[in-house]
Amino acid sequence: MDAPIIRLRGIGKDYVIGDEAVSVLRGIDLDIWRGDYVAIIGASGSGKSTLMNLIGCLDHPTRGSYAYDGQDVSGLDNDALAKLRREHFGFIFQRYQLLGALSAVGNVEIPAIYAGTEASRRQPRAEELLTRLGLGNRLHNRPSQLSGGQQQRVSVARALMNGGEVILADEPTGALDSVSGTELLHLFDDLHRRGHTIVVITHDPDVAARASRIIQIRDGAILSDSRPGPPAPSAAALDRPTVERAGPGAFVGRLGEAARMAVKALAAHRLRSFLTMLGIIIGIASVVSVVALGKGSQEKVLSGISALGTNTITIRPGTGFGDRMASRIRTLVVADAVALAAQPFTASVSPEISTQKSATLGAITTSVSLRGVSAGYFDVGGFTLREGMLIDQAMIDARAQVAVLDAEAYKAFFPQGGSVLGKTILIGKVPLRIIGRVEATSSGFGPTQVRVFTPFTTASVRITGSNTINSIAVKVADTVTMADAEGQISALIEQRHGKKDFFLQNADTIRNTITQTTQTMTILVAAIALISLVVGGIGVMNIMLVSVTERTAEIGVRVAVGARRSDIVAQFLIEAVLICLLGGLLGVALALAAGQVFNSFQTAMKLSFSAPVAALAFLCSSLIGVSFGFLPARAAAKLDPVEALARD
Ligand code: ADP
Ligand code: MG
Q1: Rg of the chain over CA atoms, in angstroms?
Q2: Is 594 left (phi over 0), alpha (psi -120 to 50) or beta?
Q3: CA distance 323 to 208
Q4: Does a structural domain hold residue 323?
Q5: Going by CA atoms, what residue is nearest to atom 11 of ligand 1?
Q6: Domain of 586?
Q7: pTM confidence score
């Protein structure tokens, strides 16, 4: 019992109020020895709590020196001070300051969690402490289910969790009825016998009378000290349960605990958590659906194209897809098709003429897309015959006035259904006998068209009156490679036209074009959806900031029992990430459900979901959680624990 455990020399504390500095503590010299039981008394506002917060390393003095167990405290950084608090001090507050979301055991465990103690060791200890304090049948009750006296005993257990070498109690009986107050004082007597050093602030002379030493404070200075020297030695040996665990294992363990506490915090406010998530849910659902829609329509179109076959080359006027001048180019003619047909590398040639015409059947007149086609057209284009027959070579040679309707044309001209055969359709003034009806196997790209097919010779000679054609599809013979055929076709047509006013397409180039356009569109729309996700993130940040303000006292308690700044940051960051991840999960589920409904109601478009998109959604939402949770988490970590605890 030689050196004091707490040694204060010339301690002063100033507060700046307005532009005036007020000295709350002036030149305090104080030694406290191991096993002391000190009562600090004094009028309200005399500086007792300020002194206690300095002793507990929650606050820094303006002047003077403080040595704890021979070690100068002023040189310690935040983490070292947190370590000092959780290893050596146990705080007991007038208003208990328990965390409402946790059970009694959960509250008692907190200091050990920050010390890195494994659950298997800290849980039995928390239960044992509570049982020792007479709360064996209240282990799993929340603070709101406990009386004031019981809550204060839970907070004593929390103070003892890591050893509680020095117990600092600020008006511990202030909120208790006299019976509970007396019980608590018996408890303090017992702790003192067991070797704990106790510093208690009180108004109450009865409380002070139990202490072995009374210090009176007035206006920030010590007025009297009933026993300035060391106490009589005692033989009690303090139990020192916790050994701090450090290293990566302890760090991961603390993160796990932070995650568990975050889950509890979210569960304690279910509706609010859900509403906070809503922005993320909607954002993720829209991003996922848009990408799925893009992918679905792309797949659909591509499957239509693969029906084209890989050995077909199409010649069109212009410089490429989307060339606006292409329709003015009139150089691609029937004679080109005839010349191509004569080449050794062609298996077959099918020109197509496409023109918008007014068509009449009976009482119905409507605009149709008239297609002058060859015999192979229906096979290559992926059509199935529903009624009658298709256009054949004989009809082409004879420029026969025949027509085949597609499904849209059938709908338009035969609203009541029935057979198309034998009817005559007027294209402009040219009558065509309907010989059949087809249906496209794939819906393809773009708006649906009302299509009427006729031999290209008929279209050229009898309807358009010009031999200009819109495209020529060449099926390449097996004997030559596609590259060879492309070279030869290009050379032939260029020679015939005198310039290159056309372009070639094969299944690959079409596929690439479509893939590119749908990808661009998808990225564009997904970017817009992403904005809603960011808005959702801002919502999360907003609520988290509010929650930091609302939970100031909780943060103060956590810091008082030894949380590092990084622990507080981790807790709030994990909460934000959890909200976003959960929101992401619900968003993906919502998108999947909506996709099911969408796909089952109609067939023209399709949603196609993929695992990478879902993974991306989760990555996105956790990223948003981290970036928008950072600000609130930092705000929480920066809170001054003294002010946080005072605000209740
Ligand atoms: P006690 O616990 O003895 O009632 P305190 O230590 O709480 O007294 O406060 C002592 C004085 O310091 C009071 O006059 C109080 O108004 C002032 N004080 C305490 N904390 C602050 C603060 N954060 N800012 C300004 N003044 C403060
Ligand atoms: Mg006070």
Answers
A1: 42
A2: alpha
A3: 95
A4: no
A5: 45
A6: 262-301+513-646
A7: 0.72
